[in-house]
Amino acid sequence: MAKRVEASGVTAYYGAFKAIDDINLIVDPKTVTAIIGPSGCGKSTFLRSINRLHEVLPGARVEGKLTIDDENIYEKDVDVTAVRRMIGMVFQRPNPFPTMSIFDNVVAGLKLNGMRRKSMLQEAAEKALRSANLWDEVKDRLNKPGAGLSGGQQQRLCIARTIAVEPQVVLMDEPCSALDPISTLAIEDLMFKLKDRFTIIIVTHNMQQAARVSDRTAFFSIERTGDPGRLIEYDSTQKIFNSPSQKKTEDYITGRFG
Amino acid sequence: MTAPAQAPAGQNRALRGRRTPVLVLVGIAVVAFGVSAALCYGAGIGGWVLTIVIGLILYLVGVFVAVGRVEGRRAARNRVWGTLIQLAFVLALLPLVSVIWTLISKGTERFDLNFFTTSMNNIGARDPEGGAVHAIIGTLEQVGIAALITIPLGVLAAIYIVEYGRGRFTFTIRFFVDVMTGIPSIIAGLFVLSFWVLIVSPWYNNGQPAFSGFAAALALSVLMLPTIVRSTEEMLRLVPAPLREGSYALGVPKWKTILKVVVPTALPGIVTGIMLAIARAAGETAPVLLVAGGSAALNINPFNNNQTSLSLFVFQQASDASRFSPARAWTAALTLVALVLILTIAAKLVAGRNRIRR
After folding, report:
1. CA atoms within 13 A of residue B261's CA, in its CB half-sphere
2. Which of A241, A242, B217, B251 could form a cystine bridge with A84, CB 3.0-4.6 A?
3. Residue in B242, B244, B267 closest to A93 by CB
């Protein structure tokens, strides 16, 4: 079910400013890929171009080809909402919908896309919450507001919400940067578990995290401020962290820069 | 083993201060007001207002000196400023309390069944009966129609400005909405008079211009619309972008995101804005006078014939020479305030059900 993501010549602009230039990489299904790099190098921009979420900003556009299982999502007649239903996203700060209960939050993607049957919604909610390791903690208070949970629980709620719609690819933009170490560990365990069902691409500032959770790692960087971000090296995590082939990568990994 | 070092006694005292006993403050107040009263009434220079003012000044000076001696200069300044701020609060509250008190004490005289079930039809200057049912119906219908027109228009316009608008056109809309918030109500009345009453209404009335409750509703709409647009716009802008992005990321189309995520989140604020607009409209007298004409009899058809409203009724009764009119005016004023209050509470309850309590 999980799909293959292939980027060819992806270049993204915010108005006249070129944010990333000529990104080429292939992500295999059912793997975890980490994108690392210094601030401002376009990691989040690239991630958001995968589910076409950067388009909500006025003046933003993408050139190049991005295919999900050989279907280019940037073709003229592609339905953006269908793309986004297929590719889920978890954000840096947990963003549960404040006017909805925990249950409504988890099934929001399903309900707002037309699913009405109570029984199906309940089944889907339980499955998603169990997959997100949150079921035991919230099963007795599904009607309480989603915003009443702790940070780590809220983030797991957002993950449950994302996987409830059964996407093919799950994107995570620094999902643990707003959380404490225990919650971070819980989410990293979750990523291991979810790997079996989805293709996961995660942007992270934390190199130890990238080394722990990912199968392959992509290193992005920029020459100077104002330059577009480029993909410097993309290889198996083992290789990137132990014997990178680019000097820039090695400098970054060992902390000599960025 | 050496004895543990003792902190010098002076250092310990620095953390704890002495507090001025409350009795001292009360004593200062008594002395201050006593002296002031003696001064004003004794020397005959003023009445109770001057007594209070001088008393307050003396109290503040006394507090500053006393607290300064006991607790220090900083605490003294703090105390004086604190007292001044509390005073400002009381002063700000006084008009409100005064209005409510006057309304209630004077308005209950005619707060009877007769007032709410009869109009001023066939009531002469010597008749003590007569009521405001026609004015109440008028206000409800006019404000109701105005709300029906402006709430959808205003909320949708605000949604357009915030969610879809780009560039010059949106800027122009916002500019003109801002200008419209400042239109005096009588100008709105004149506009509807010249446009609707004098030009459009003759088409439906055999060539004769006609007043109507609907014309008043139009004038009230002109006044309500900018308020609703602006406040809804502000509330929608307050909804954080990550919330919208979370919905888009689930593959929810834009219009559904706005309808099911953004607007419900902003709803309490939007309702407040709407209630403010309604409260303002319910109290407007000039437009109703100009285009609805006023009426003594009950007219439940807002599209045909003169109508009056509670605010216009108050104005007319207050200027009326009959000795029974002032009581009616007061009761009508009380009714108007109570009406808006009930509407506001009802609206808050409806909107509050949307927000889940923790």
Report:
1. 29
2. B251
3. B242
Q: Which amino acid is at A64?
A: G
Closest CA to B117 of B136, B138, B102: B136
Q: What is the per-residue pLDDT across B47-64, written as a single tens digit (0 to 9) for each?
A: 888 888 888 999 999 889
| pTM for the model | 0.81
Q: Which residue of B has its CA nearest to A95?
A: B243
Q: Say which residues have a Cβ less than 8 Å from residue B219's Cβ, sequence separation at least 6.
A: B185, B188, B189, B191, B192, B284, B287, B288, B290, B291
Sign of the dihedral through C-alpha A158, A160, A165, A171: positive
Q: Pick from B134, B192, B147, B120: which is nearest to B310 by CA? A: B134
Q: What does pLDDT average to over chain A?
A: 90
- We find that the CATH architecture of domain B115-352 is Orthogonal Bundle (1.10)
Q: Does residue B261 contact residue B247 with C-beta atoms inside 8 Å? A: yes
Cβ-count burial of B353 within 10 angstroms (0-12 exposed, 13-18 middle, 19+ buried)?
Answer: exposed
Range list of β-strands (E), B20-178: none
Best of A51, A79, A81 to mutate (most B CBs within 10 Å, chain B): A81
Domain ranges in chain B with CATH number 1.10.3720.10: 115-352
Any CB–CB contact under 8 A between A238 and chain B? no
Averaged pLDDT of chain B:
88
User: Could you report how far apart the first and last alpha carbons of chain A are, in Å?
Assistant: 37
3-state DSSP: chain A helix, strand, coil percent, rounded to 5? 35, 25, 35
pLDDT for the residue B14: 66
Dist. CA A141–CA A229, nearest whole Å: 45
A81 touches chain B (CB under 8 A): yes
Strands (DSSP E) along A115-187, which ranges?
Answer: 169-173
Confidence of residue B13 (pLDDT cuts 50, 70, 90): low
Nearest CA among B339, B325, B340 for reference residue B106: B325
Determine whether the interchain pair A112/B264 forms a contact, defined as Cβ–Cβ distance below 8 Å: no
Neighbours of B5 (CB within 10 A): 6
**ipTM for the assembly:** 0.90
- Domain spans, chain A: 1-92+203-249, 99-172
Q: Which fold has domain A1-92+203-249?
A: Rossmann fold (3.40.50)
